[in-house]
Amino acid sequence: MLRVVAPVPMTQAPATAPAVAAHPATDAGPLHIGYVVNTYPRPSQTFIRREVQALEAQGITITRFAMRRDAQAVTSDEDRAEQGQTRYILDSGALRLAGALAGVMLRHPRALRAAWRAGGRGGPGRLRQMIYLAEAGLLVRQCRDRGVTHLHAHFGTNSTDVVRYAQLLGGPGYSFTTHGPEEFDAPQALSLGDKIGGARFVVAVSAFGRSQLARWAPFDRWNRLRVVHCGIDPARFPDPLPLPPGPDATHPLRLVCVGRFAEQKGQMLLIEAMARTTAPVHLTLVGDGPLASALWEAVARHGLADRVALPGWKDEAGVREALAQAHAMILPSFAEGLPVALMEAMAAARPAITTMIAGIPELMVDGQTGWLVPAGDADALARALEQAATTPPDRLRRMGLAARDRALSRHDIHAEAAKLAALFRAHQQD
């Protein structure tokens, strides 16, 4: 049975943003933030690009750092511009990396011990931790050359290892944003508690994410665990997308699922649910990944070739076009943080069918912005498909508008960046 919750107001004003641009400096001097990501830019990281650009629009100087370039060619003009502004640590070459590690080993025994302990916990291993330590040595030099006063990493994985080691090497203090589910799948192996303990503050993208961080932080550090949502740019969604014809006797319900083809996204279960429903439903799976061939085989095995399309990966414009051709988004995920694809679909006035996991129920309202189902339950998912397929077009339209209102009120990138800017300023002297 589908879960029904009490109605909540659909119109929600964004949190009041601090007057960031009016206060470009504190007593500690002007802010210069180094943003650190392992691989940047990538097509799946548009939310980082939006955050960086929104912070710059509010008067904060940002230097972008990445350990390496993406193996895939950058295709969009916006990502090419970001790539041109990014400093790549591993472009320094193997000799400089080795020299940096030798210097660390001679002069910073505390940092060396921290990396050695982290490598023994079953995560990336000691060799990789030594590489992260060397990368941190090179990063510290670049921060000093450029006047960076604070480092902020995205993802609590190796990028946060690097900024933590950079601080131990005498570099700037750091903070980091966790997204999940990776950080919460292996918190001990990733030394998540040590990373929280050394940080000026830590960001989660949902209240659920903050609760997972609290499991690895002492009580007296909980006030440094903050929620800042991933943001979307309202300017990219100026008008609701009109629904395609139907669903009715001559037009099937058209669904789109956007995401990497991986176990945690649940697309294989969605194929099972499609096979179990007799309702007129057409599904488009947008994405690519390690399960692509298995999904093709499952579609053929279930005789769904005329009901399921797999067009491959699409850029932002392609995803928006796929949304325009759909009545609703569907995300059958087993594990998540808070999916950017979901909030973008909602901003485009599409209701959603998705699962009751992680931060999703904080955004979705069952029965009003779409349908929430238990994760891993193919029968419940099939029933949601049938219910959506028999929902009158006018009700689907109202649900889509409610979804749009909720996404735009909770995830405006300018309001969220202002929250982050306020945290940078508040903790600059820590």
TrEMBL record:
GO MF assignments: glycosyltransferase activity
Matching InterPro entries: Glyco_trans_4-like_N (IPR028098), Glycosyltransferase_grp1 (IPR050194)
E.C. numbers: 2.4.-.-
Domain Glycosyltransferase subfamily 4-like N-terminal: 116-236
Domain of life: Bacteria
Keywords annotated in UniProt: Glycosyltransferase, Transferase
PANTHER family attached to this UniProt entry: SULFOQUINOVOSYL TRANSFERASE SQD2, TEICHURONIC ACID BIOSYNTHESIS GLYCOSYLTRANSFERASE TUAC-RELATED
Name of protein: Glycosyltransferase family 4 protein
Organism field: Paracoccus nototheniae
